[in-house]
Amino acid sequence: MAIQKEIWQNHIEQEIFKDNSFLRMSHNADANVIGSRAVHIPQSGGSGNVVKNRSSLPATVRKRTDTDIIYLLDEYTTDPVVIPHADTQELSYDKRNSVLSEDRDKLVETVAEETIQNWLKSPVYGAYGATSLPAGNLLTATGSEVQASAPSATGTRKGMSLTDLQRMQTYFRTKKRWYNGQMYALLTPTDLATCFPADSVVTATYMQNVTEEERRMGVILKAQGWNIMSRSTVASVTAAGALNAPGAVGAATDDEASLFWYKDAVEYAFGGVVAFEQPGAPEYYGDLYSFLVRSGGRARRADYAGIALLRQGKTA
Q1: 20: how many CB neighbours lie within 10 A of its CB?
Q2: Where are the domains of the chain?
Q3: Is the peptide bond before 123 cis (omega within 30 degrees of 0)?
Q4: Tens digits of per-residue pLDDT, 264-287?
Q5: At the top level of CATH, which class does the domain 5-43+69-128+266-299 belong to?
Q6: Measured between alpha carbons, how far is 226 from 32 in angstroms, rounded to an integer?
Q7: What is the mean pLDDT of the chain?
Q8: Which residues of 77-109 are buried (b: 16+ CB within 10 A; e: fewer)?
């Protein structure tokens, strides 16, 4: 039995942005997907000087030399899965829908986690070297003691506090990357619960600052100028501050980290979803299905300006 491809393709796309709406809090580069795998982002060579009451003429002529950075569109594919003919006839539930829904959920989760990784780290491509978030963009939380929450981490850590939110705001302001209404924070569940306890009147006030439209876009509350969102996993770093890959086993000394960014400091390009099917595959005595998604992203500045992590702090 054939599936309705368009329905499944649209459904997967909707799920990507419904469950991971933070992806759209970025510069939209969807138009760059067509006809290309590599996306180039021009880098300004910088502005010229401004002179008050210039007395020396003619003024020195300057030429701006621009560079660029690059990222690749990744292709995410699910393993082909077979639905045996017998399962479509003998089971009391819709196994096809159950199996494809699980594959969809895994695909959506992988795209989101890999995009966060791409915003924080860029691999080698041709003449372009690998880069990653500078150490100066990694701040440390100073809040109350919590259980270590990174995969494989043990012991206790310092969680996030409202003071840390203010510190993050100050950091972005000093870097001249603060734009009111365009600042986002993606908190780990631990940071969200520690900084905004459910029984706090202050938390209720911050939640009331969010409009219904913003809530539909994934914003939970607003505090210290940040539009605050959350998801089950964000990022984790080693004791030395190196970024762990999604799904990495990790170490006992790792720290979980929340992500902070200015909306136009990061870029996301979505290339759509393709559903594949082969009904009645004779060699498998059933129907074969799989999905494909193309997407990519990167920090838009070579120096990762406008994006930072707040890691859990070590306790004594």
Answers
A1: 20
A2: 5-43+69-128+266-299, 139-263+303-314
A3: no
A4: 999 999 888 888 999 999 999 999
A5: alpha beta
A6: 29
A7: 89
A8: ebeebbbeeebeeeeeeeebeeebeebbeebbb
Per-residue pLDDT tens for 53-103?
A: 888 888 888 888 777 788 888 999 999 999 888 887 766 567 888 888 888
Q: How far is CA 95 from CA 37, 87, 301, in A?
A: 35, 7, 46
Distance of alpha carbon 57 from alpha carbon 167, whole angstroms: 45
Taking the C-alpha atoms of residue 27 and residue 148, their distance in angstroms, rounded to an integer, is 33
Q: Tokens 């996306």 belong to which residue?
A: 39
Q: How far apart are CA 203 and CA 209, in angstroms?
A: 10
Q: Is 59 left (phi over 0), alpha (psi -120 to 50) or beta?
A: beta
Closest listed residue to residue 298, CA positions, set 17, 37, 40, 85: 40
Name the β-bridge partners of 132.
121
Which residue carries 């992988």 as its tokens? 110
In Å, the largest CA–CA distance within the chain is: 91
**Helices and strands (H and E) in the chain: how many:** 7, 19
Measured CA to CA, the distance from residue 310 to residue 37 in angstroms comes to: 32
